[in-house]
């Protein structure tokens, strides 16, 4: 396992680009978030400050699939697919399970219409 702390101003997706493995857990705070709800065509912006309650997903050099739940100052909670524009406010503390390069990839799946995870057998 690998621990990673992101700094204020970091973009969650940008900071994880190019890695291979799984985000097992994540907590912290955001200035704002861009989350895509299930079935939506694009992201919805959520103004902060926000607390990251959960963060998990898969990381491949050619893309990632991250989900998060966040709460605002009133305790309202939103969750969805993490898009670019989730900017760290004070910190983001992540636990990552790295995997060897080449062990995971993302390939377009005509059935789902999305790039989906492919596990490379070794």
From TrEMBL:
PROSITE patterns: PPC. Residues 1-120 form the PPC domain. Pfam families: PCC (PF03479). InterPro entries: PPC_dom. This is DUF296 domain-containing protein. It comes from Pelomonas cellulosilytica.
């Amino acid at each position: 396992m690998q621990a990673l702390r992101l700094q204020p101003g970091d973009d969650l997706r940008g900071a994880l680009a190019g890695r291979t493995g799984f985000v097992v857990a994540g907590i912290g705070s955001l200035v704002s978030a861009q989350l895509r709800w299930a079935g939506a065509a694009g992201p919805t912006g959520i103004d902060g400050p926000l607390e990251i309650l959960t963060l998990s997903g898969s990381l491949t050099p050619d893309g990632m699939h991250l989900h998060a739940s966040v709460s605002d100052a009133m305790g309202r909670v939103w969750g969805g697919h993490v898009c670019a524009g989730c900017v760290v406010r004070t910190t983001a503390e992540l636990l990552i399970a790295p995997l060897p390069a080449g062990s995971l990839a993302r390939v377009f799946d005509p059935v789902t219409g999305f790039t989906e995870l492919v596990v490379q057998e070794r």
